[in-house]
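From the pipeline queue, job 12 of 40. The input is one protein chain; the requested action is below.

Action: predict structure.
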Amino acid sequence: MRGRHTESYSMHKRSSSREHIINGFDREDSLGISQGSVPKDIGNPSWKRPLPHVLVATLSSFLFGYHLGVVNDTLESISVDLGFSGSTMAEGLVVSTCLGGALLGSLFSGWISDGLGRRRAFQLCALPMVIGASLSAATSNLEGMLLGRFLVGTGMGLGPPVAALYVSEVSPAFVRGTYGSFTQIATCLGIMLALLIGIPAKNDPNWWRVCFWVSTAPAALLAVLVEFSTESPHWLFKRGRLAQTESELERLVGALHVKSAMSELSKSEKGDEVDAVKLLDLLHGRHFKVVFIGSVLYAFQQLSGINAVFYFSSTVFKSAGVPSDTGNIWVGIVNILGSVVAMILMDRLGRKLLLLGSFLGMASRCNGFTSSCSEPDFFRLWKFISICWRNAALCLDIFFRCWTCPCSPSLRDITKPN
C-alpha cells in the first residue's frame, strides 16, 4: 500500500510540476506580449539547423525503398543459387516475408518511439536491418534467406513511421511540408539505387549477395549518426525533461527562438491533454471519420499494385519486349521526379488537392495500362503491337508519376476543405 501511495504521489508531483511550468510559459508569453518585452515578429528560424537531423532520419526511408527493390533484378539468380528455381511459391515468399516482418515492426513502432525515444527507435530499426541483410547475403538455403528478409522487414516497419514523426517534430513550421517530402524522396532514391545495383545480376550469378551486403552500410551509418542527432523536443517535453528540451531546441532553431518554441510546445501539450482519446474511441464517434479516411487512403495506395510492380517490373518489361535495364532506370527517374514535384507543390496547393490528383491519376493510368497491355490480343500486325507496348510503357510512367504525389499527409489536412 505504501509503495503504491508513494508511486501515486510521485506521478502526481511530476504532473503538477509540469502543469506549473506549462502555465508559467503561458503567463510569461502573455506578459511579454502585453508589456512589449518580447518582439512581436523575430522572423523564421534557420532552415539549415534541422536539415542534418532530417537527413539522418531519412536514411530509414532510404533503406525501406532499397529493400523494396533489391529483389527485382536479383530474384532469378537468387532462386537458381539457392535451389528453388521455378517455384513460384518460394519466390513469392522471398518477396513477401519482409512485408510480414514490416507488419510486425509497424505494430510496435509507436510504443517503441514513445517509450524509448525517437533516436533509440532508429537504432532498433537499424539493428535488424544489418543482421537480416547480412544473413540474406551469406545464406546458402531458402530458410536463411526468409529469416533474413523477415528481420529486415521488422526494421522496414519500425523505421519509416518514426522518421515521419521525427521529421515533423524537428522541422520549423514553414518548411515542415518540404522536409516531410524528404522521406518519400529517400524511399524513391533507395528503390532506384537497388534497381541500378541489381543490373549486373543478369551476368554474375553471385552478384545478388553484393546487393544485400551493400544495404548494411547505410543501416550501420544510421545507427551511428543518430547518436549525434538531436532527440525530439516534443518527446522530451512530454517526459518532463525541460532543461534538455531547451538545449535541443537551441540546436534546432537557435537561442532566439527557444522561448517561442517552448511556448508552442506547452500549448500543444495542453491541447493533447484536452483531446486525449482511448484506442476504442478511434473506432466510433467524431474520430472515426478521420481514421477511416486515412486508413482507406493508405489501403488504396497499396491496392493500386505499386509494390508488385517494384518487385516484378523486370519480368513485366521482359515479357513486353522492353529491355528491363532501360525500363527500370526510367521507372526510378520518373519516381524521383514525381516526388520532387510533390515536394515543391505540397505547401502551395495543400495536401488534399495533391491527394485527389494523385489517386485520380493512378485510377485512369491503371486502366490505360491494362487496356494497352491487352491490345495485342486484338491486333495481329507487329506494327500495332509495337504501338500498344509503347502506350503501355507511357501509361506505366504516368502511373509512377501520379503515385509519387504524397500519400502521407496529416489527417487533419485531409479532412479540412482547401
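Job complete. DSSP finds 18 helices and no strands in the chain.
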